[in-house]
Design goal:
Elements (H helix, E strand, L loop, with lengths): L3 E5 L4 H21 L2 H22 L9 E5 L4 E4 L5 E13 L2 E8 L4 E6 L6 H13 L11 H10 L1
Antiparallel strand pairs: 1-2, 2-3, 3-4, 4-5, 5-6
């Protein structure tokens, strides 16, 4: 059995629906509690936020995480929708419920990226393994060896 776990994440309709619902509820609260001019400004911000977060959950944004590669020694790599792998460092990880996993990383470009994983985005066995890795992972701080990103991208392009 390999010490490396590779998880392909698909678009999550559940997450997209939750994003739109939460933004809609915030919009309704703003419409009730704020004067019309303030509610219009809040509505514009909420619309932009809902659009971007729904794009990420459906993998239509280059910032979406479409793949995770997790090593037993704590090293992590993430792939965007285009399939290019980037080394990353874990900032935070949680498994707050049996149906939810969260991983926050900083990629090699310095961007903070978040993978909020629901069961509709991944195979059941991969989801179970991901939750186990997140619970029992090596503490953050382990770095990928130089050249690991290049090797992964060459393998992905074959």
């Amino acid at each position: 059995m390999s010490a490396r776990l590779q998880v392909r994440l698909g678009p999550s309709r559940w997450l997209a629906a939750a994003v739109v619902t939460a933004h809609g509820a915030a919009l309704a609260a703003a419409a009730v509690a704020l004067p019309a001019a303030a509610a219009a400004i809040v509505a514009a911000g909420l619309a932009l936020s809902a659009f971007e977060h729904a794009r990420r959950s459906l993998h239509r944004s280059p910032l979406a995480i479409a793949g995770l590669e997790l090593d037993a020694d704590g090293r992590v790599a993430v792939a965007g929708p285009a399939g290019l792998w980037e080394d990353a460092r874990v900032l935070d990880a949680a498994v707050p419920a049996p149906w939810l996993a969260l991983l926050v990383v900083r990629d090699a470009s310095g961007r903070r990226r978040t993978a909020l994983v629901l069961p509709d985005a991944v195979a059941a066995d991969a989801f179970r393994r991901l939750r186990v890795w997140l619970r029992w992972r090596v503490p953050a701080g382990a770095q990928s060896p130089p050249g690991a990103q290049t090797a992964r991208n060459e393998a992905a392009s074959r």
